[in-house]
Amino acid sequence: MSRIQMATPLVEMDGDEMTRILWGWIKSMLIEPYVDLKTEYYDLGLKHRDETNDRVTVDSANAAKKYGVAVKCATITPNAQRVEEYGLKEMWKSPNGTIRAILDGTVFRAPILVKGVHPTVRTWQKPITIARHAYGDVYRNTEIRVPGAGKAELVFTGEDGQEIRQTVFDFKGPGVVQGMHNLDQSILSFARSCFQYALSVRQDLWFSTKDTISKTYDHRFKDLFAELYEQEYREAFERAGITYFYTLIDDAVARVIRSEGGFIWACKNYDGDVMSDMIATAFGSLAMMTSVLVSPQGQFEYEAAHGTVTRHYYRYLKGEETSTNPVATIFAWSGALRKRGELDALPELQSFADRLEKATLDTINSGVMTKDLALLYEGEAQAVSSREFLEAIRKRLEGNA
Ligand code: NAP
Ligand code: MG
For 78-84, which contacts have Cβ atoms below 8 Å and span 24 or more sequence positions? Predict the structure, then answer.
C-alpha cells in the first residue's frame, strides 16, 4: 500500500516523560505506516531545552509561525524539584507560555466525546469548546490590603501629562483594593483568534462578559469584538452558516447548561480559567481534552490538555506496562494532519485524520479502552495497556478489528 504524501512539513514539538513515550508509539504504530510523514522536528524534552538554554522552544514557535501548523507533546514546566531532578542550569519558563507569547494566540479546549462516558449535564450531546483570553485582568493585578481609614484612588498619568483621577472608595476602616488592566491590542488578538477558529471548525461563537456592571472595562471587550466582527468577519460567518452572538455572562451560563453543545464559548481570562475546569470535569476526563493554540494570523498548534503523566512514567521506567490514555495526543496529531491537509488541499490527508479519529472512537465504543476511561464507562469495558489500546486502534485502521 502506498503511503499518503504530504506537501509542507508539520512542526513537531516532542516533549517529556510518559507522553514522550506515547508520542513515539503513536507515530510508529498509527501514523508512519500510512503517511509519508514530513516534520520539522524540535526536541522540547527538558534535557534538550536545558542544553539549548531554551532556544529550542523559541525556534519551534518561530517554525510554527513560518509553517502554520504544529503538533506538541506535553512538556515539563520546571519547578525547584525538577531543577534538582534534571540538574538544570535554570528554572526554565513554561514552554506553553513561551510559545503563546510568540504566536500571540488563544487556547481553545474541547472534550472528545465517546458513547459510554456520559456528560454530567444530560442535555450535552456535542462538545463545548472554551476559548480563554490569556492576558491581563486579575492575573496581572495590583492589590493593596488597606490598613485603615483613607481614600483609595485610581490615577492615570498620560505621557503628555494628562491626568485622569477617580475615587475608588472612601475607606472608614480596613479592607482591600485592587487594580487591573487590559489592552485593546490583546483583546483584538483574542477576538481575531476566536473568529478564525469558529470559521475553521464551522461552529457558532458565543462571547460573554459582565458589561452591565463593568460599563467601561467589560464593555470595551464587547465593543471591540462587535467592531471587528462587523468590519471583517460578518460576511465570512454568514457564508459559513454560523453565528456570532454576545450575551451577559449570567445568561451565557444558563444557556450553556440548557444547550446541546456544539459551539465555542469565548471567555475573559478569569471566566475561562474557572469555566474550562467545570466543562472538562462535566464532560468526563482530562485525558479526553484536546487543546489548540490559534494565533490571530491563523497559525495552529495542537496538543493534549493534560500533562506528562509523571506517575505513570516512573512506573514505566520500572518496567511496568501502564494504561495511560493516548487519545488526546492522538487527536493532537489528527487535528494537525487534518489542518495541514486543508491548507495544502490534500483530501487524502484530511480523510486519514478522520479515519484515525474514527478508529480510536470505535475502539472505545467496542469496549476496549485504558483504565481511566474504563472506570467512567457505562457498559462492558475491557481495560488494556496503552500499547494494547494502540494495537487495537491499528487493527481497526487496517480494517480487520
Ligand atoms: P498530569 O500529567 O496531567 O497528570 C495528573 C494525573 O491525571 C495523572 O497522575 C493521572 O492520574 C491523570 N492523567 C492525566 N493524563 C492522563 C492520561 N493521558 N491517561 C491517564 N491518566 C491521566 O498533571 P501533573 O501530574 O500535574 O503534571 C505532570 C507534569 O506535566 C508536570 O511537570 C507539569 O509541568 C506538566 N504539565 C504539562 C502540560 C503541558 O505541556 N501542556 C500541562 C499540564 C502539566 P493517576 O496517576 O491517578 O492515574
Ligand atoms: Mg483553572
Answer: 78/46, 82/46
The closest of 265, 264, 243, 251 to 212, measured between CA atoms, is 251
pLDDT digits (tens, 9 = 90+) for 147-169: 999 999 999 999 999 999 999 99
Could you tell me the three cell numbers for 328? 488526546
Tell me if 73 CB under 6 Å of ligand 1.
no
**Of all atoms in ligand 1, which is nearest to the CA of residue 75?**
40
* Closest atom, ligand 1, to C-alpha of 305: 41
Q: Is the pTM of this model over 0.85?
A: yes
272: CA distance to ligand 2 center in Å? 8
Spell out the domains of the chain, with CATH numbers in brackets. Answer: 1-113+290-401 (3.40.718.10), 118-137+183-283 (3.90.190), 142-179 (no CATH)
Q: Which residues in the chain land under pLDDT 50? A: none
Evaluate: CB of 287 within 6 angstroms of ligand 1.
yes
CB of 325 closer than 6 angstroms to any ligand 1 atom:
yes
